[in-house]
């Protein structure tokens, strides 16, 4: 199982849209079983999947060490072969508690190790192991976001090109480096340009980014009104608008991510 955190200290850059659509495409087109962990107290991914965090066991219980029966923390979603560990607003409070009572930085990593070893999880969720875990991170440093990076093989950084696109990037890199100091091998898989549109500022900004030290995916995700509409409809882009620019781009991005020829 490969674990990928979708991170950026900025909000509104497409982390959640990337997480849920990457999950849907990895499952739908590439035959994978995918676990999405919602690590953001705003719980957008949770609600996108039609779950209500206040009625579920959530990541808060994993962070504080309350979780002792793993299958009860994993829920089916509206998308085949995509499952979810939900979040809810109380994650803000449990974040502090987790440092005192939980496994701290190792909480999610320990949980995912246990998911791999738990036969009951395999039985309940289709008898095959998960191929990918995607963690939708909050736009801030919290115990859950640090635990997410610690649990990850790789991070993907969505960036929306604007005047402040690189704000917080230095801090994020420092944070990833400090987690790497205790768990080497966490890779920055790449930067994904989201909400791209053809205007001089965005084109120049993307060009600038591609000349930086960051490794930027060749595929960018075009801006499309269908994306907002799909979130209102609680549908993946595939379900909502199979042929819109952003859908085509997310398919292309997942192929690029998987190393398939474009
Ligand atoms: N490619 C896109 N085209 C148009 N709107 C987008 C696109 N990607 C994301 N959005 C919209 O931008 C907003 C922020 O996206 P979201 O994934 O919630 O960001 P984050 O999780 O980083 O806060 C949402 O309203 C979403 O519908
Ligand atoms: Mg989000």
Fold and architecture overview:
This protein has 262 residues and is α/β, with parallel strands linked by helices. The protein has a single domain, classed as Rossmann fold (3-Layer(aba) Sandwich), CATH 3.40.50. It has twelve helices and seven strands. The chain has helices spanning 15-28, 44-48, 59-63, 91-101, 107-117, 119-124, 143-151, 169-182, 200-210, 225-233, 237-240, 245-257, and strands at residues 2-6, 34-38, 75-76, 82-85, 132-136, 154-160, 187-194. A seven-stranded mixed sheet has the order 3-4-2-5-1-6-7, sandwiched between helices. α5 (107-117) packs across α7. The longest helix has 14 residues, at 15-28. It is globular, with a radius of gyration of 17 Å. The model has no long low-confidence stretch (mean pLDDT 92). Bound molecules: adenosine-5'-diphosphate and magnesium ion. Magnesium ion binds at residues 15-16, 40, 44, 136. Residues 15-16, 40, 44, 136 line the site of magnesium ion.
Which descriptors apply to this entry?
binds magnesium ion, Rossmann fold, binds adenosine-5'-diphosphate, seven-stranded mixed β-sheet, alpha/beta, 14% strand, 12 helices, 262 residues
Secondary-structure topology with pairs:
Elements: E1 2-6, H1 15-28, E2 34-38, H2 44-48, H3 59-63, E3 75-76, E4 82-85, H4 91-101, H5 107-117, H6 119-124, E5 132-136, H7 143-151, E6 154-160, H8 169-182, E7 187-194, H9 200-210, H10 225-233, H11 237-240, H12 245-257
Parallel strand pairs: 1-5, 1-6, 2-4, 2-5, 6-7
Antiparallel strand pairs: 3-4
Helix pairs in contact: 1-12, 5-7
The protein binds adenosine-5'-diphosphate and magnesium ion (MG).
Adenosine-5'-diphosphate binds at residues 11-17, 44, 194-195, 221, 223-224, 227-228, 231, 246.
